Amino acid sequence: MLESKSIREVWQEVEKVMNEKPEPILEMKAVYQYDITGDDSGTFQLLISYGTAHVVEGTEAAPDCTLTLSDQNFKKMIMGKLNGTVAFMTGKLKIQGSMGLALKLEGILNDYNLSETA
Fold first, then answer.
1. pLDDT grade for 1, boundaries at 50, 70 and 90
2. d(C-alpha 59, C-alpha 27), whole Å
């Protein structure tokens, strides 16, 4: 389960799954930055470019959308156990930049159903 993996391992899984099934991101070009707080913290960028996804630790490009949340809430969100809109409305998620891209990302992550990955 993803809960027991480190944030870096979760990102590797996200990148792998997105590249194995590029259809949901074929029409997209965006840079998402995640500022993750908590015990397993860090800054990561998800670079999506027309069917390919690449995750880097740190800041490689100017982000279109920056999401700030705790490591535990990040894992819950990736697995579909925490709704992004609810997280935002309750202060568990902070968003800077394009709100539209943030909403689009939630829909894309739901397409991948990462809750089933080992």
1. low
2. 23
Are 24 and 47 in contact by the 8 Å Cβ rule? The answer is no
The residue written with tokens 């490689």 in the block is 60
Give the span between the Cα atoms of 12 and 36, in whole angstroms.
Answer: 15
CATH assignment, 2-108 = 3.30.1050.10
Q: What is the C-alpha to C-alpha distance for residues 93 and 17, in angstroms, rounded to an integer?
A: 23
Whether the CB-CB separation of 66 and 35 falls below 8 Å is answered with yes
Total number of residues shown for the chain: 118
Q: What's the CA gap between 44 and 109, in Å, rounded? A: 16
Higher pLDDT among residues 105 and 67, named by residue: 67
